[in-house]
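Let's practice the habit of predicting before peeking. Look at the sequence and jot down your guess about where helices and strands might fall. Then scroll down.
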Amino acid sequence: DGVALNGALPADCLGSYIRLAEPFGDRPCYERLASSGVRRSFLFFSDGRWVVAETMDAGAQPFAYVEDAAPTPHEVDRDGAPWMVPADESAGQDFEEVQGAPAWCAYLANSDLIGR
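Done guessing? Here is the structure:
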């Protein structure tokens, strides 16, 4: 199974993610399905937030994150905490709320993943 990350997020975040066999800590973790030449992205829980980053490491620089302790990313409250993205890509330390359409994760069963 997996999730689809949707909404007004950076291109490195959007798409379908497949759940990996090994969890990250005590939560499931996911890798984005992408063609060759596209930057890898991982979705995992670290320090009280769901993070999208290039590496699956607690210290990785996020492409985006949402502070929510939901057991899986598709259970994050869509009306709760907003997804955050870098305010200035050159600095990478300051984050701001996603502007425009909200961001959210949708659950994908195996049959949904095959259809993508």
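How did you do? Residues 27 and 71 are 7 Å apart (CA to CA).
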